[in-house]
């Protein structure tokens, strides 16, 4: 009976959900690490929305090293058993749009077309956030008291390491060890994949030094860009060769080492650059020690006038047990609602779940998505958002 009433109510809320996702997209919350304004303005809107719906809302803001406010929200619906909380954890910040010429529409002006809402942050992570919010709204409008406290954690800084987001909240002690944590920040199109493990993460920066000069007189210069290109190629080949084992638990079974970003060199074509800066994003299988990876990087750079800086270093925590309560509950709901037989596994990493696992608290990652995160023309399917809201709501009443 609960299932039919809840799913019907969420379907009635579909238009409101679409409107709210459009509003989410329209407020720029690009992470300040990438030159954006941060989460505060979007958090202001979300706080007002949650309070109007009837949630009990706590706000946890902190300033980053540059004095920018980083905003986190906790919203609660009290449950029958108030000793524990089912938390659905989504993030407010987004990555930049990237090359605007690759977008068919303005990334911050949402467009609805063919069961899709387009815009930066639509899938990563706005669609899941809106689904979780309206799952709770459906429960409140039906006067359904959840089995446990139904909690939403809308957090900052996920795209750049979570120092001012989930790590900040964990350090403040707002979560309890017996709580359950669902992070809808990865998944697949069918919705039958539950993530229980993540790889280690290593981001590093390399500064290559040379000697600037006129491009017509290369013998008087030392081309840092050419040196850097050679180093990138050697790092790519060396790291993939040395750390080449597979682990079939993971959706991508290999460790990955991707050169992702370079900083500006010179403004004009006819000057040889004397400095070149590039970055790597490494997602490393848990069997490897990140110190071994760094040692390999240092050996490639040795004697080449290059400086290494570690930007992010997060060793993989132990996986969530496949038979943990939330995995079992989520599997049961997906079987009942969608007739899905789920599979569990791991992904490249980077979600908030890793920080709960680091504390020894089981956390799972699940959602139904098209995997358009960080791409131009990012979108969220409306039907997936609505169906996921049903899952979140039913999890709240699952015994």
Write the layout of secondary structure elements.
Layout: H1 2-12, H2 14-26, H3 40-53, E1 56-63, E2 69-77, E3 81-91, E4 111-113, E5 116-118, H4 122-141, E6 148-155, H5 166-172, E7 180-183, E8 193-198, E9 200-209, E10 213-214, H6 224-242, E11 256-262, E12 271-272, E13 275-284, H7 290-301, E14 306-314, H8 325-338, E15 343-347, H9 353-358, E16 363-365, E17 379-381, H10 382-397
Helix pairs in contact: 1-10, 2-4, 4-10, 6-7, 8-10
InterPro entries: ArgE/DapE, Bact_exopeptidase_dim_dom, Peptidase_M20, Peptidase_M20_dimer, Peptidase_M20A
Domain Peptidase M20 dimerisation: 196-305
Keywords: Cobalt, Hydrolase, Metal-binding, Zinc
Along the chain, the helix and strand elements come as HHHEEEEEHEHEEEEHEEEHEHEHEEH
Tell me about the largest β-sheet.
6 strands, mixed
Rg (CA only): 23 Å
Distance between the termini: 14 Å
Number of strands: 17
What's the CATH architecture of the largest domain?
3-Layer(aba) Sandwich
| Annotated CATH homologous superfamily of the largest domain | Zn peptidases
What is the fold-level CATH name, i.e. the topology of the largest domain? Aminopeptidase
Q: Strand percentage, roughly?
A: 25-35%
- CATH top level of the largest domain is Alpha Beta
Discrete helix count:
10
The 3D shape can be described as globular
Poorly predicted sequence stretches spanning 5 or more consecutive residues: none
* Integer tally of domains: 2
Mean pLDDT level: 97
Looking across the biggest beta sheet, what order are the strands in?
A: 1-2-6-3-7-16
Look at the helices and sheets and give the structural class: alpha/beta
